[in-house]
Amino acid sequence: MLRQIAALPYRTDGTGVDSPVSVLLVTSRGTGRWVIPKGNAMPGLAPHVAAAQEAEEEAGVYGSACPTPLGSYRYRKRRGSGASLWVDVDVFPFAVTREIDVWKEAGQRERRWFPLAEAAERVDEDDLKDLIRSFGPSEFKAAAARRSGVLETLSKNTGVSGMFAW
Question: How far apart are CA 164 and CA 166, in angstroms?
Fold first, then answer.
């Protein structure tokens, strides 16, 4: 079984915990279906740093990747020979701070921002749908409340968006 890393590029409209969240999806090169930027782990790079690099190469975005994965999902990767294998993908939240117009795979992929619920519906993998849905403000707010004020402390002391405190 193969293991990969992925970025879940997101942005919020506003600074409140209940602010709407958008997710950036890209099309796959082979089938044109909507996916999140992903790839193989890179020797010498922490997994969340490698996920950030995938977001830059595949989607043309920069930002901050959370070092703790949101979770993982599994998909079946098809090989050119027709064979396939299962791949487990660790997904790292990625707070987008900048988009560029020209990037490495711009000619090979389309990118588009979707509201959270619509992004979940656009991807094919059920586990990934669930992960994206779990990133919603109400779910996040409930998780943060259980973490004894980490959200307020983080925001007050660092100015980091609440969604990034995952």
Answer: 5
* Contact between 17 and 151 (Cβ < 8 Å): yes
Judging by beta carbons within 10 Å of its beta carbon (0-12, 13-18, 19+), is residue 141 exposed, middle or buried?
middle
In the predicted model, what is the mean pLDDT of residues 1-16? 89
| Neighbouring residues of 5: CB distance < 8 A, sequence distance ≥ 6 | 38, 39, 40, 41, 47, 48, 50, 51, 54, 89, 90, 92
Tens of pLDDT, residue by residue over 147-157, are 444 445 445 54
1 three-state secondary structure: coil
Tokens describing residue 111: 């990118």
pLDDT by residue (tens digit) across 68-106? 999 999 998 887 788 889 999 999 999 999 999 999 999
Asked whether 51 and 65 are in contact (CB, 8 A), the reply is: yes
Task: Output the DSSP codes for 56-85.
Answer: HHHH-EEEEE-SS--EEEEEEEEPTTS-EE
Measured CA to CA, the distance from residue 123 to residue 129 in angstroms comes to: 6
The model carries a pTM of: 0.81
